[in-house]
DNA sequence: TCTTACACATA
DNA sequence: ATATGTGTAAG
């Protein structure tokens, strides 16, 4: 079965497309604009409407997408390549925003790579609470974000469900869809309150299958040819010979690595459109306004389609401390060639690994009132290296919990649960860095997001602007999510409702 | 499948 | 120079 149509990768249709119409010009540099990309979007409410987001190096992403993008996940955390970078326009120069990403399941299948192609092999593992990666510059003014490319190069992916670093946790052989959320910060530089405005942008060409080691040699070659850090494996000529020489003992591949070995891939990109998830298409962006951030998050998180219940994932927020503006992702452009983290105890790392430590499920760490914070970020720099992170979460044991139970039971509850100051969840693990309040909140958001999906969805929806895509199913938006519409339309935006759901409000109130 | 040490690369 | 990101080969 190739994936085709249905699933996974199959995708023939390309959706990508979208059009966009940006009124403005796009910045081209960054993004390649050739296509239609952009999310145009519209976010309606609260000043989010004129926001546009362009995927940087979209052409490179498309090259990978055509073959079936794979991203390595390791215990220590691995960066994504291509690097996720965007050009943002339309923000209020003086307003503060928090930019963050999450990576949600694109569908609920498990894949295998055999016979030189990807195919569905079963049902996906229950989704874990998703973690959020808050851009290290957050919160920052619209002017800051629009001034230059916003790079998420430091974001790392891991397969360690007990990851203590705040990296985004994914399951191997599962397909995912990265999403960007632009959230308007409140006066305290936080978000999460009931009417926080935000918008979500999804570029379907950034969907990928998480792997522990590359499956498709074509992908390996693309990585080697385009990632500066893999330059050592580029084959051309000399290097190869030299290497060989050194190696001597072994014969190694006579064939230069560069030589292509693979054969194959059918023409279409493996990933198909369907995955596209939400209605958003490719670039779609959706925006919503949202109600609380929660909602936002929520939306996003929700992975697949599915039944909502599951969706419950919570999200955890990961905030990188460092702030620098670095952005450099190594993109190789041209080459062608070839706390909530909960950590319960911040102090010892080990604790991280023990979920047990965490009492309850995760919850709503954030919920609380957040401190102020983001803005201050003293810690940021320091923390430095580690990226600290947080998330909300319950992560720890989710696994154990059956999804079901968890989802149902938790859904709303968590958020609501009050946290004590000392509550582990609320606190950040490592202080130095993570501490910022915002994290907290975010996390909360995340949490909520997850479950609520259903609900929230229903209410709100985020979905794409394009009508047709909307999900039909009663199910919430999430659902949609994975069903990505294949239609090509451009971006979509959705608007969320702002509703504050009971739940939401509740948690928000915790404050 | 996943993990690890390693040579090579960037920054 | 140190620190860190890459895919490989071997476990």
From TrEMBL:
Comp. bias (Polar residues): 344-354, 428-447, 458-472
Biological process per Gene Ontology, one example term: cell fate specification
InterPro entries listed in its UniProt record: p53-like_TF_DNA-bd_sf, T-box_DNA-bd, T-box_sf, TF_T-box, TF_T-box_CS
Coiled coil: none
Residue ranges of domain T-box in the record: 55-235
Cellular-component GO terms for this entry: chromatin; cytoplasm; nucleus
Record's compositionally biased regions (Basic and acidic residues): 13-29
One Pfam family per UniProt: T-box
Name of the protein: T-box domain-containing protein
Organism the protein comes from: Oncorhynchus kisutch (Coho salmon)
Gene: LOC109872155
